[in-house]
């Protein structure tokens, strides 16, 4: 009887410890997810604020541009007017970061990130074609694109300022959506068991995990590689 009581108490204590550990684990996960979500909100605010700043700048200068062009026209200074228009066109090409993929939501995700990258002085080269209607949830696709570009921007920031670049290529390839993002990086990347590790502390590892999970969800293909200061990610997602 005594041994039965001891075993019963041991099982009860073990069960209590399991419940406590489970509760602590859930709280830690909830805390990390909340912190990660707060970080995303802050990044989104910075991206949108950067685009608004560009728009406000053009709105502020709009009357000045119109008055200058009218003055050239009134004085029949056509060569000067043509030169001024060319300068405005070049300026507008720099300000207008809009990349039109064919899918409005993906446009929003891409342009907010690319606008932020350009504001940080990172050279950007991007070409993207995305169907207007997708079998893939647009939210999932935005998760992939957003995290890829967040990682690219942060990797660029750790390297030589003169060598910072991001290249984006998205298109339809063999009835699959092909996504390619490459960027400059420092040479301190880490791998474990064939998997790339985040060099960031805290919640930042969620970015890589979220990309992996979305790709797995659609039985897609994911390849990460790096060499000579360049990191690249290739993803292929079935369209049907």
Structural features, described:
By secondary structure, this protein is of the alpha+beta class. The protein has two domains: 2-93; 97-238, Heat Shock Protein 90, CATH 3.30.565. The chain is 58% helix and 19% strand. It has five helices and seven strands. A five-stranded mixed beta sheet has the order 1-2-3-7-6, with helices on one face. It has a two-stranded antiparallel ribbon with strand order 4-5. Helix 3 packs parallel to helix 4 (138-157).
Name the quaternary structure: single chain
CATH topology of the largest domain: Heat Shock Protein 90
Largest sheet: 5 strands, mixed
CATH hierarchy, class of the largest domain: Alpha Beta
Count of all domains: 2
CATH superfamily of the largest domain: Histidine kinase-like ATPase, C-terminal domain
CATH architecture assignment of the largest domain: 2-Layer Sandwich
Helix content: 55-70%
User: Reading side by side through the largest sheet, how are the strands ordered?
Assistant: 1-2-3-7-6
Separation of the first and last Cα atoms: 65 Å
Structural class per helix/strand content? alpha+beta
SSE succession: HHHEHEEEEHEE
Number of strands: 7
């Amino acid at each position: 009887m005594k041994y039965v009581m001891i075993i019963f108490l041991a099982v009860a204590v073990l069960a209590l410890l399991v419940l406590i550990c489970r509760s602590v684990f859930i709280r830690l996960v909830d805390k990390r997810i909340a912190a990660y979500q707060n970080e995303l909100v802050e990044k989104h605010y910075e991206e949108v604020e950067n685009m608004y700043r560009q728009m406000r700048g053009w709105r502020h200068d709009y009357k000045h541009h119109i008055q200058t062009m009218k003055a050239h026209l009134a004085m029949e200074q056509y060569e000067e007017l043509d030169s001024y228009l060319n300068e405005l066109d070049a300026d507008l090409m720099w300000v207008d970061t809009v990349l039109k993929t064919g899918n409005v939501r993906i446009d929003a995700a891409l342009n907010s990130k690319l606008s932020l990258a350009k504001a940080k002085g990172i050279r950007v080269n991007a070409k993207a074609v995305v169907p207007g209607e997708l079998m893939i949830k647009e939210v999932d696709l935005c998760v992939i694109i957003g995290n890829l570009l967040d990682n690219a921007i942060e990797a660029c920031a750790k390297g030589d300022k003169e060598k910072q670049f991001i290249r984006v290529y998205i298109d339809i390839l063999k009835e699959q959506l092909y996504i390619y993002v490459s960027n400059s990086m420092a040479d301190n990347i880490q791998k474990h068991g064939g998997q790339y590790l985040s060099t960031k502390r805290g919640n930042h590892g969620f970015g890589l995990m979220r990309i992996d999970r979305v790709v797995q969800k659609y039985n897609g293909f994911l390849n990460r590689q790096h060499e000579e200061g360049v990191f690249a990610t290739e993803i292929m997602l079935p369209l049907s």
